[in-house]
Specification:
alpha/beta, 6 helices, 7-stranded mixed sheet
Length: 223
């Protein structure tokens, strides 16, 4: 008679809410590209909304009982609604996914924070501004735990993803030379073979305010 425990091999093959969130997001993105149902002039919020529309059509959403939405306020359930936990001051994260399917008697959430990115200046958009914003309001908000349980998504609306990642790495190197930011970023973006049939996945390492090393995951979607 067995011990009732799953073998390490089986445990490894059981998907997490992160695994399924990645799959649902990428599936929706591929469908939008296939149908050409987007506009390069869209703001992040418009792309977020269109992605969620398609994410909700996914069979995986039904299989894993996912609730998917946009603009979720992140608050601390263990603190009163005052000071930095005041609803008026709370950060909003772009895409949220919720399910009871991944852990017994526990609701789990996963989040995506998205940023538009450009390789070149175009249509009054300064590419370097978006590169800096990705780091200063994307990476930084995860680094200081203003955002949590999630990953960053870059919407590539102009140019080549690899060259945009190069620009992000150049900016991280500049930040490491800045004494006020030097300890924040421990590594450059590194491409990883983590998601099947998806090449634009990267990881970077950073130091939290409590001096703990953290890894941030990045998906780049080329439009």
């Amino acid at each position: 008679m067995g011990s009732g425990k799953l073998s390490p091999r089986i445990i490894k093959n059981v998907p997490t809410i992160e695994d399924i969130s990645f799959k649902v997001l990428i599936e929706a993105y591929c469908k939008i590209i296939e149908l050409n149902q987007y506009d390069l002039d869209w703001e992040e919020e418009q792309i977020n909304q269109e992605l969620v529309v398609f994410m909700k059509k996914s069979e995986l959403r039904i299989d894993y009982h996912l609730t998917i939405g946009v603009e979720r306020k992140l608050f601390n359930e263990n603190k009163p609604p005052i000071a930095d936990n005041n609803p008026k001051k709370l950060p909003r994260i772009d895409i949220n996914i919720v399910s009871w399917s991944f852990q017994k008697d526990t609701e789990l959430e996963y989040f995506f924070e998205a940023k538009n990115l450009y390789e070149n200046d175009c249509q009054k958009k300064v590419a370097s501004k978006y590169i800096n914003r990705y780091i200063d309001t994307g990476i930084e908000n995860f680094r200081i735990s203003r955002y949590y349980n999630g990953s960053l998504v870059g919407y590539v609306l102009d140019g080549d993803t690899t060259k945009i990642v190069e620009k992000l790495n150049i900016q991280l190197k500049k930040d490491r030379k800045n004494k006020n930011k030097a300890a924040n970023h421990l590594s450059s973006f590194e491409q990883k073979n983590y998601i099947k049939n998806f090449d634009c996945y990267y990881e970077s390492k950073h130091l939290t305010p409590s001096k703990e090393e953290m890894l941030i995951k990045h998906l780049f979607l080329k439009f």
